[in-house]
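Why B box-type domain-containing protein? Reviewers of the renewal asked for a concrete example.
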Amino acid sequence: KSKMMREGHEEEDMMMMLPRKPAWLEGLMAETFFSSCGIHESRRKSEKNVFCLLCCLSVCPHCLTSHRSHPLLQVRRYVYHDVVRLSDLEKLIDCSYIQPYTINGAKVIFINQRPQSRAKVSSNVCFTCDRILQEPFHFCSLSCKVDYLQYQGDDLSSILYRIDESDFTFSSLRMDGHDQLGEISTMEEDTDDIMVMSDQWEQGNNSNKKEKRKTKKESNYSPGMVLSLGSRRKGAPHRAPFS
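Here is what the prediction returned.
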């Protein structure tokens, strides 16, 4: 019994040693989106599809009047999984090395990792959950990157940006009825380093794209690799209520 108690304390100590996530990031990764709002469930379009970065909770369109002066982040959904536009998310956190997907012409990032039906073999997989990725990406979702850096004991402040409320105003929300997104595009390449792929490609159903087989090299990923954006806000300290 004393051994079990000692192991329990050691586990708690390890959890305490992990670098803490700011409240908005913890909330975004843990919140339930697209469920019916308990306050406005009798009204049409009462799904919670907006995240308040100040209150750290999900709200529905009818709740927005109470959060009009707060920084707000639009959340969308693809095949039962929550996504955020890359252009919005990269104002909050360094998204480099997270694989983006293009849906309805917009680049998006999955908030959390998705279950996989079977094991896959590839030369390039997510460092956290082993989902097949295209090079040069190392993570399939925001949570996979954050969890990996936390596990490595890295300081998350190195990838977090100070929230600029002018970037997340009520008037900037795209309440255009396209929260339930359509098909992911098959393949696209930007002039930058962003490439996207479809879930069908992941499952090997795209006969035109042959997976290159090669020995997986030992990873040399380090926190410095994700500091390539050179943002005007990189490394800025977090102050209440966003810390």
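Helices lie at 2-17, 23-30, 86-89, 142-151, 199-202. This is the kind of structural detail the renewal will allow us to pursue systematically.
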